[in-house]
Amino acid sequence: MELRFYNSYSRQIEAFQPIEPGKVRMYHCGPTVYQRPHIGNYRAFLFADLLRRVLEGYGYEVTQVMNLTDVGHLLNDADEGEDKLEAQARKDKVDPWQIVETVSRAFFQDLDALGVIPAHHYPCASDHISEMVAIIEVLIEKGHAYRVGDNVYFDVSTFSRYGQLSGNKVEDLVAGLRLEINEEKRHPADFALWKSDPAHIMKWDTVFGEHGFPGWHIECSAMAEKYLGKHFDIHTGGEDNVFPHHECEIAQSEAANEQAFVNLWMHTRFLQVDGGKMSKSLGNVYSLDDLVARGFSPWDYRFLVLRGHYRTQVNFTWEILRGAKESRAKLIDWRSRLRAAMRSGGGVDTPATIDAVTAAHEVFDAAIADDLNTPEAIAALFTLRNKLVQVGEAGSRTADAAIALLDHADSILGLFEPAAEVNVDSGALSDDQVEALIAERAEVRAAKNWARADEIRDALQTAGIVLEDTASGVHWHRG
RNA sequence: GGCGGCGUGGCCAAGUGGUAAGGCAAGGGAUUGCAAAUCCCUCAUCCCCAGUUCGAUUCUGGGCGCCGCCUCCA
Fold first, then answer.
1. Which CATH superfamily includes the segment(s) A290-425?
2. Does the C-beta of A166 come within 7 A of strand B?
């Protein structure tokens, strides 16, 4: 099935076509490691993971790069702003590099907890200063950038496509400027490639002086080129990156290399909390730990994110997270029941049930191929569940096919937490033991020996065995 | 002021020019020694107005409301 994605640049859905057959190179704007990433950040990273899984599912050899911004960009792009990392460091009374270290570690732990497949490269901005300087020199040489003292700015007027991605016009940008005009710039919309400030802690000695540091956008141009080449397939980020960040990246890279930079731009919409933007003052900037502290798995959050399309705003509340958790639990439970059905072999396969699985599989794949419509794909799983449950216990062929579909869905969406799996498998009771206990329970219940019956029930429950007292007898599966 | 998105049942969330997938919650029922789990059933006319059309939730225009970007931010 043909993959189709919405391209922010063309503003339409396009058939996906890699530059090099069978291979996909993609870049994701990663976290700024000066503060513990919050759940909103992870929506974008979860999206990158989804993309990776889908592309690999289609057999592409994917090279994935996500940068870590460890250079504290200015709080204020206009001029002598304060450096974010340094400001945080002063607040914490530590060295900025220590913050980078601490936050980076938390970031990778979170990714792991969310079941994100690691990217192939996680380059840091601070390790690529020379690559950035090289691009800036080329831009100056080609007349796209100019130096004022030890600062360097990109000359927007030399790049006619500036504004194409975001839909902004340079004139409108100027009209809407809320910042003080930086007199150094030739044009108010020009942006910094390199800045200098002796007071900075994080600074580098380069051809532009000894107290310099990179502008906000140049790092991604430099690292993307280094790991993926001058022209690659996909670049993603949050919606806030569209302007100015990605707009500037395009200008820098294309002006310097005189060729196309990225074929496909994809942006995720923000996660909202309590119906609006999360904010510290409202106290709703949650980290993954906050969710875990309330008894949720990071995978529940992952599921919550996937239940919404990546290009729509998704709201987060505890109630919504609870709904996601319950929903996912139902899927986990269903898989266990299917496994039990395989084991018992008591169900009957019919052409209808087999066809239902095949149909669900097709709907699932079609939904994913259609610009990653994960909500619809997930719904296909539940629709199948309902159909199969209606006809009773699934036959082994049906169950086998349904489990295969769930595994397929899991490989793309990441539904089932591996750790939970281990717990179940380590259950102390063998199938035979479970059967024996259930048989005994039936006997003592017939004898109205409720004490022993409840004892067995509790023992089974402790071992992670779920009992279902149905009209057709007792069914069981591992929780 | 400029650019963009959204408005579907209590809460989430797909979707189509021909009378609305799915999940959670809720209510009723079955089952049960009690409970859990399970199963069955019930639960929307798609923000408002006008237009196009045989027919619009889906297209067009207007209105109202909400959200985001334009300044660090996924």
1. Isoleucyl-tRNA Synthetase; Domain 1 (1.10.730.10)
2. yes
